[in-house]
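Subject: Protein record for review, amino acid sequence with backbone structure tokens
Category: Structural biology, sequence-to-fold work with a learned token vocabulary.
Format: Residues in single-letter code; tokens as whole numbers, each standing for a residue.
Body of memo: The sequence and its backbone structure tokens, given next.
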Amino acid sequence: MNHTGRPALGVGMVGYSFMGRVHSQAWRNVSAFFDTPYVPAMVVLAGRSGDKVSAAAARLGWAAAETDWKELLRRDDVQVIDICTPGDSHGEIAIAALDAGKHVLCEKPLANSVSEAEEMVLAAERAAARGIRSMVGFNYRRVPAIALARRLVAEGRIGTIRHIRAQYLQDWITDPEFPLVWRLDKDKAGSGALGDIGAHIIDTAQFITGDRLVGVSAITETFVKERPVAAESAGLGASGGSARGAVTVDDAALFIGRTAGGALASFEATRFATGRKNALRIEVNGSAGSLAFDFESMNELWFHDDTLDDTAGFRRILVTEPSHPYAGAWWPAGHLLGYEHTFTHEVADFLSAIASGTGPSPSFADGLHVQRVLAAVAASAANGSGWTPV
């Protein structure tokens, strides 16, 4: 117990870069804003470099640091493993943690292949039979506006869904001299824009509509085939050098699809949309109305009610009211939330699921389905076969 009267739940996290920083913020703050059944204890942070992980642990609020993630599984004061590493290590860590009796939160995409994701689902099922919970971290489900969109669809406010249009547009590698980071290496990342940001719009579309893709037809492109190797990766020291390496992932992916419910869908994921920084956009058209969202205006949802007269049009909903999903835990209406809040919502939901003994959402099985969509897109693009079932 602690001063809140709620039991503590020890957390061990693997990885401390971008995702590690934002997950740390969520674990630090969740119980200050949400009436969580547990208060997270930030017990230990793991990373490969001793000096770097120790510095990160001190900066981010973790009590201890380790260079071997397996040590986290041996600790009795750790009940949750949070995986914030590249996709090539998700499966090994998650399966070992679940088999060791630890609850697992794993960043998306679930794995780098369907077969590995299937093994992770089997481990999750074994663990669930013993009361051990697992969840994949598709944080955009926890944007209040997206959660409100899901609520409106579930209430029948837009009727039968006919069209889904989803885009995720970024521009962070448009410079051909941007270095060959791990996200551009297929062995580590699995795929490029497709798996990194395409996975998000696949999950977001399926979450909002409550429907799943059953087939796709795709094209992908790598615009810059070769990039400078970072000096540290090349072993060149501080002076650097002229070494270059092949980009082995896609820069952009476009595909169309059909859902089980018969809706037509189009998806675009690219890191080459100059001027677009993090534009996750989705529009859903139904027989009774439409919804539209753009993450670059993340506190807004646009809603058209087609059952009204011809003056209805789209109207802007500022999703900050206490009655809106998650918003009531934060600030007065009109005081906006940001990217980091979505991870706090994610952690709050995960803690609630652990306490209630229910399966968290999205589950590893949900992550597997996204992985199967990604695989179908990659297969369609690679062999030019056109329509590919999921």
Summary: The two ends are 47 Å apart (CA to CA). Residues 234-240 have pLDDT under 50 and may be disordered. The chain has eleven helices and 17 strands.
